[in-house]
Amino acid sequence: MAKLDAQLVDRRTVERNIEKGLLSREDHQAYLKGLADAEGNAEVVDLEEEEAAEADADATPEEA
């Protein structure tokens, strides 16, 4: 399969490009299967922990 233009396979426009005949559904599926797995690059973020840390940072100590 030839390298596809990134604009053709952009998830925001891929359905429109398939309808226009600029890209076949089979080529799109083959493109998706050929993508590298980037799961190892992910970072888990605990939003509750982040919010608690921000709340602690925003709290001002009471003056005596």
How is this structure best described in words?
It is a single chain. Helices cover 42% and strands 0% of the residues. It has a domain at 1-35. The chain has 64 residues and is an all-alpha fold. The longest helix has 12 residues, at 47-58.
Please provide the ordered H/E string of secondary-structure elements.
HHH
Number of helices: 3
- The parts where pLDDT drops under 50 for at least 5 residues are none
Oligomer: single chain
Measured on Cα atoms, how large is the radius of gyration?
23 Å
Question: What's this entry about, in short?
Answer:
By secondary structure, the chain is mostly helical. It has three helices and no strands.
Q: How do the strands and helices of this protein lay out in sequence?
A:
Elements: H1 14-19, H2 25-33, H3 47-58
Key traits:
64 residues; mainly alpha; 0% strand
